[in-house]
Structure formats: structure tokens, C-alpha cells
Amino acid sequence: MSRPALHLAVELDGDGAHPAAWRRAAHSPDQLLTPRRVAQVAAVAENAGFTLITLDDGVLPPGAGPNPVGRIGAVERAAFVAASTSSIGIAPVVPLTYAEPFHVSSQLASLDHVSAGRAGWVVTEEEQPEAARAWGRPVVDGADARARESRDGVHVARALWDSWEDDAVIRSVATSRYLDRDRLHYIDFTGEAYAVKGPAIVPRPPQGQLVVLGRPDLVPAAQLDVGLLTGRDLAAVAAAAADAGTPRVFAEVEVALDTPDATAAARVADLEAHAPWPDRGRLRHIGSAGQLVSLLGELSRHVDGVRLHPLVLDEDLPVLSRLVLPALSERRLVTRPLPGTSLRTTLGLARPANRFAAASAQPVQEDAR
């Protein structure tokens, strides 16, 4: 029996995973935030056959001098990418430490509508106190408090996505009825820091629930569709996968590949002369495309997917496209997402039933029995 396909995601924020990646980029720094650049990189990833792209974000600048820093909001970039692609999944990073869950849920539901069901959401935290000042909110201090904000925020977002039943929108011009108010619901959430009544202001997303990705040690596994796993070696990733408790698990892998112009080690050394590559506890591959193919083959025994963090996008993404994904396809380890297919379907995740519709139907089912 053949094993399920390995799903490949790639992080496309900035010029790459290294803080000094801009020094080896194929464009000038002032081109980084242009629409053409965003669309081009997303097109390369989609044409290569990646399942998913992620777009990192945070309220604070993504680095410090002397490197040029800056980014456009991940949700805004994701919406732009959604309009210029047709099959690849798109998951912006949206921390919940200070953001309002009601607004986050509305933005992400809108993204799922724009992308025709290809949206995901990477849940993270804002750890630095400066983020609180940027939001104009008190500091959420401590790991437990940040975890609470993430837990409550995901709970609220998921409940709001269900606050419209699938057939709540009528759009009947003849009867001048556009909504069935009986199919809109209050969520009545009360947490330690805030309360949300609802319902949402955006109809239920095409996927019912967006695909939610995050680290199981930061967000309860029951709230995640995909657990993002760290680990500095294969054994650590395998152990994390066994303990994750999420429907799907993706390993986090940083990659620096040999290119026609330089070896991976030489490229890393060149950038290390300007700034260190931060150790985020992830598995790291520095070497050839063939060695990466072998590593991904080993990982496929333990995980459902891998999120790649290329050292320099302009150098590593072409190698991934020309050598890595084709080799994985030949070994039948990966498959392309199909146009018109939702991200949930691509990942083999069922579309969830609406909690309110299921609750109202339950008495009828009991009577029928």
C-alpha cells in the first residue's frame, strides 16, 4: 500500500530565513515590498507544486539595522496572492496576543472567500513587550498568559466561523430576503480578558473552518488542524510527531542548498559574516538538493508535511523548483494540489459540520429514532 503524499509548504516572507538574506537577493532592497515581487515569488512556488505558502508577520519590524527591514501585513499579502494564483494554499501568520479575535476571524473568513477555499492560518505569539505598546494595550506577560490569548482567540475565531450556517444567505431578489436570521447565531464567549457575543459579519468560509496551523506546545492540539513541529534532528522530529495529537503534522526545516554558483556552506558563511542565522530549534539542512530529497524521504515516514524556510529565496527557491520537487514527484512522495480544490481537501481533512446546525438537528434525529 502506497503511503500518503508528503505536503510541502514554504515560508515566503522577506528575502529568506537568514536576517542578511537581502545581501544575496536578485533584486534591490526597494523592490522587496512591490506587488510584482510578491506575485512572482508566489507564482514560482505554485508552479513548482508546493501545497502551501505561509507569510510571516508581526506588529514589530522583522529585524534590526544595518539590514533593511519592513513588510506589508500578511493578510493583505495573502489576499493579493489569492487573486493571482489558482491552486496553492495560502496561510498568513496572525498572532493573537494583542489582536482582536473578532477582526482576525473576519479577515481570515474573507481571505477564504477570496481564495475560493484555499486559506489557512498560522497562529503565533507576540513575545516582545514592545508589541504591546504598538497595539496600545497592556503587556501580556508570561508564557501562560500568551498561551491563554492564543487559546481563547482560536476558540472565538472558530465559533464565529460557525455563527453563520451554510445556508444563512438567501439572496432572493423576488422576495427581498437576503439572510435567514434564524441561521445566524450568538457565540456568547466570555474569557478572562474579554467577551464576544457575535455573530460574525462575514458569511461562513467556503471550507467551513480554515485550516489552522500552529505549534502544539503553544496552542492546544485540539484547536489545530496541523501541528508545526520543531526538532534539531530526525529523532526529535519523530518524537514530536508521535506526541503532537493533531490531525496532521508538519516538520519545520530550514534549508540552504548548493547552487550553480556556490555551495550551501559557502553561502551560509558569506551571510554569517554579516549576522548569525538564529537557532530556532528547527531541523536544518545545509547541502545538496539530492541530500534534501533523501532527508524529506526519511521525514515522510513520520510527518504529513514539511514547511521549508529557505536561506535566500532568490537562490534556494529555484533549486527547490528544478531539482527537489521533481525528484520527490518521481519517487511519488508528493503530489500537486489541483485547481478548484480546497486546502482542507488537499490535506485530506474533512469539511467540519456547523456546530449550531448540528445542535439544532440533534433533537430531530433523536425523535426519528
Radius of gyration (CA) equals 21 Å
Number of helices: 11
The H-and-E topology, N to C, reads as: EHEHEHEHHEEEEEEHEHEHEHHH
Strand residue content:
15-25%
Number of strands: 13
Question: What's the rounded overall pLDDT mean?
Answer: 93
Low-confidence stretches: 364-369
Q: Overall 3D geometry?
A: globular
Estimate percent helicity: 25-40%
The main sheet comes to: 9 strands, parallel
Structural class: alpha/beta
Straight-line N-to-C gap:
39 Å
Please describe what this structure looks like:
By secondary structure, the protein is of the alpha/beta class. It is built from eleven helices and 13 strands. The protein has helices spanning 35-48, 74-84, 101-114, 129-135, 143-162, 234-243, 264-272, 289-299, 313-330, 343-346, 355-368, and strands spanning 7-11, 52-55, 89-92, 120-122, 169-172, 177-179, 189-190, 195-196, 211-214, 226-229, 248-257, 283-287, 305-310. Strands 1, 2, 3, 4, 9, 10, 11, 12 and 13 form a nine-stranded parallel β-sheet that branches. It has a two-stranded antiparallel sheet with strand order 5-6. Strand 1, helix 1 and strand 2 (52-55) form a beta-alpha-beta unit. Helix 1 (35-48) crosses helix 2 (74-84), helix 1 packs parallel to helix 9 and helix 2 (74-84) packs parallel to helix 3 (101-114). Residues 364-369 have low confidence and may be disordered.
